[in-house]
Design brief:
It contains 6 helices and 9 strands, in the order βαβαββααβββαβαβ. It is of the alpha/beta class. Strands 1-9-8-5-2-3 form a 6-stranded parallel beta sheet. Strand 6 and strand 7 form a beta hairpin. It starts with 8 loop residues before the first strand and ends in a 10-residue tail after the last strand. The protein binds 6-phosphogluconic acid. 6-phosphogluconic acid binds next to strand 4. The site of 6-phosphogluconic acid has 14 residues, from strand 4.
Length: about 250
């Protein structure tokens, strides 16, 4: 990928189904590599419509029931403040699609407590991350972070116009109205995402073509959007797109 935009690898599939197939296979490969190297695969999930077909593939053969699930730890990059049994819950989305279908130890599933007020849930999750960090660190180094992007350039629940108050914080409480989704949210910060071994953005559909072009090739002076603050320091960055989201990129 070239241009003044983000560095990283670009993977384009013809449609969202093919994108999900490719991502699911690549995720399983990352999981095996992590388990072989460190005995654990630490995966951070996103929410929204785009990851749904990927999540469904993780919950059915051939990936359903694979051994790496027993060594997988699940975290979330963001959560909406709703109880975990509500349809708007990112936890519930993943639980229904693939967590419940796989032999992931219950103690390895670290959900953000969306049923709590956002500030409280953020503090609680900060403690969860600290408890799973290497000695002397305040959050774990994740193996793989899945992120979506909004047409406005938000990612996780990092929205344009919301500064991150403390660059060392790992979790924040946020209020943001987006497409009628629950406005009270909790999000991990760019510092956490950028310390990961891998960050995979995913975008699909024509509504994302403009922001994808801006993020990957944009050279016009515009106020930066949150997705631009995600640049893993020592990890891979991959942009997974369907053909519609990639439609405005310069053909190579
Ligand atoms: C959330 C997400 C959020 C999402 C984008 C894109 O909880 O809402 O984590 O950051 O990834 O809003 O959502 P779509 O995939 O639905 O376009």
């Amino acid at each position: 990928m070239t241009g003044a935009g983000l560095d990283g690898t670009l993977r384009v599939s013809p449609n969202l189904g093919a994108l999900a197939d490719a991502m699911a296979a690549a995720l399983a490969e990352r999981a095996w590599i992590a388990v072989q190297a460190r005995g654990v695969f630490r995966l951070v999930l996103n929410g929204g419509g785009t990851p749904q077909p990927l999540f469904e593939r993780l919950g059915r053969p051939p990936l359903q029931g694979m051994d790496f699930w027993t060594r997988t730890e699940i975290y979330w990059g963001d959560e909406r403040c709703v109880p975990p049994d509500q349809p708007g819950s990112n936890y519930r989305q993943a639980a229904d699609a693939f967590l419940n279908a796989n032999p992931i130890p219950e103690t390895n599933v670290h959900r953000i407590l969306g049923e709590l007020p956002a500030e409280e849930a953020a503090q609680q999750y900060q403690a969860v991350l600290a408890a799973h960090a290497e000695p002397g660190r305040t959050w774990p180094r994740f193996d793989l972070v899945l992120l979506g992007v909004g047409a406005d350039g938000h990612t996780a629940s990092l929205f344009p116009g919301h500064a991150v108050p403390d660059p060392h914080a790992s979790v924040l409480a946020v209020t943001a109205d987006y497409e009628g989704r629950p406005a009270q949210r909790v999000t991990l910060t760019p510092a956490v995402f950028n310390s990961a071994r891998g960050v995979w953005f995913m975008a699909a559909g024509t509504a994302k073509a403009g922001i994808v072009r801006r993020l990957l090739e944009g050279d016009e002076p515009q106020a930066p959007v949150p997705a631009q603050s995600i640049r893993p320091v020592e990890g891979e960055l991959v942009w997974w797109l369907d053909a519609q989201a990639a439609a405005l990129l310069t053909p190579k």
